[in-house]
Amino acid sequence: MSKKLNYEDGIAQLEEIVNTLEQGSISLEESFKAYKQGMELYKALKAILDEGDARIEELTRQSAQEEQNADA
């Protein structure tokens, strides 16, 4: 995952991994590799969401400050 991960593409990849694991059509060793890849994707997607939450909180804070300044 050296390139910038797009959230939607990451979710699609994670769903594909989950489906493959649920089917049980790959070997145990391949399952371990797929699970590891899925966990890495999960962490990367969680980081994207955490970053988004931080951006929303900052925008909300800025909006509240602007509102206070307008009322003053």
Question: pLDDT under 50 segments (min length 5)?
Answer: none
Rg value: 19 Å
Nearest-integer average pLDDT: 93
Class of secondary structure makeup: mainly alpha
What keywords describe this structure?
rod-shaped; mainly alpha; 2 helices; 72 residues
Could you explain how this protein is built, in words?
With 72 residues, the chain is mainly alpha-helical. It has one domain. It contains two helices and no strands. The chain has helices at residues 7-23, 28-71. The N and C termini lie far apart (49 Å). The mean pLDDT is 93.
Ordered list of secondary-structure elements with their pairings:
Blueprint lengths: L6 H17 L4 H44 L1
Helix pairs in contact: 1-2
Characterize this entry briefly:
With 72 residues, this protein is mainly α. The protein contains two helices and no strands.
